Amino acid sequence: MTDAQRGTQEQDRGPSPAEGRAAEKGASGRKALGPPASRGRTTVADSVVEKIAGMAAREVPGVHAMGVGMTRTFGAVRDRVPGSRTSVSRGVKAEVGEVQTALDLDIVVEYGVSISDIAREVRENVIAAVERMTGLEVVEVNIAIGDVKLPDEQDDDDGEQRVQ
Known about the structure:
The chain is an alpha+beta fold. Helices cover 39% and strands 20% of the residues. Strands 1, 2, 3 and 4 form a 4-stranded mixed β-sheet that branches. The longest helix is centred in the last third of the chain and has 20 residues, at 115-134.
């Protein structure tokens, strides 16, 4: 084998193991790992996104309650039990992926408000809150208006507590 052929063969093999280790190390002699933000993975649970969305939806004026039908009735009963907490995620369903999320909200609105305006405001507030707090992209927020709270209608959440 000639010297020219040996030189070509050495180039094809790449750096020796010692040379490769030197290339991986930074100036301090430690292996360069990249920026801290890229080391590891963060996952956000569905329940976390549901709580954030529920709080954001309730902030909008004209939203009377979240959840409809039996879910709301059971929630009202559960809220009356001493020591229990109000479920902020009631009426919210989230599907969370690695970088995106989709939400379904069931809302009760107050009588006299514009449903289209409420839906737009809820959608904007929920998207802003979820994206800001989680970093996930919200691909859709589906809103179902399940009831209207009339002014003279007694609410399940109002009134005297039966259990003391």
